[in-house]
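Notes from the 1:1 (GR / supervisor)

We went over the backlog. Supervisor wanted to see one worked example end to end before approving the batch request, so GR pasted a single chain during the call. The sequence is below; no edits were made to it. Supervisor asked that the structure be written out right there so they could see what the output format looks like.
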Amino acid sequence: MSRRYYDLPSMTTLATFETAARHLSFKQAAQELSVTPGAVSHQIKALEEDTGIQLFERKHRGVDLTPEGEALFEALQVSFQRLSLVLKSIRAGDPDEVTTVGSTSAVASLWLSPSVVRFWQKHPDANVNQIVRDRVFHGASLPDLYIQYGRSQENGLEQTPLYRDQLVPVAAPNLAAQMEGCSLDELAQSRLIYLDCDDKSWTSWKSWFTKLGYHSPLPSGNTMNNFSVALQAAQEGAGVLLGWRRLISPLIESGALVVIGPHQLPAPHRFHLIGRPEAELSAAACQLKHWFLEEVSAFTDEYSSFKG
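Structure output shown during the call:
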């Protein structure tokens, strides 16, 4: 039998394989596709027979991808993500003129939104849709560009390291004045504001103290699940918050929050600007990307060390 034009197996088998590989479960893939696990197994078997390649290792409690399966899954994930974004742009209309950019609420309010406003002032005809999400961007929900602390686990994306922030204790002016020059032990026993959010890559108070050599138990305190809310609580005197010196610099410069010296620690990860390779971005998205990089270069020379 003659092969199809692109010499590819059935798209049904490929789509079923991508779903099963993403979940590493035929049962969960069946739930997503609204079919039976047996139907998923049948499609995977058909794909393996068609390609002559074993894609999964069947185990007693599930399945794992073979090296060949991992390679195929990566290629399909990138292709499906690209197709999803193209369709989203087509449905929205005028795909070359609308750029989507995403970040957490804290990054949006403290840096990204003001930067987009400055971009609009210089390019008044530009259309930028901003997406704020306090969860990791992934899958079909990926914007054209987004700011993330640490690297993305998504395949096929260009990840430009921007800068590494400093983790410092901050508080409202009155509280910070009382604690200036305090020891780690004194700081640990103060009113701490804890952050408990879905993204576990953010450094916790416990990790921060441990890195600085303090290993005693920490007292309980106020817990927030959103960094922006925690910042507001700190400004109102609720306690001491672990802050990001560069990210919250607008609040420090305005005097709303004050750094409690002398303890600080470099963040374990850098902030990254993430998106599809420039060859796959629209001209408008490329223009916005270079705007962000120029803005970062204006406040840190660390980005310059990554270029070239």
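Supervisor's comment: The CA atoms of residues 73 and 96 lie 29 Å apart.
Batch request approved.
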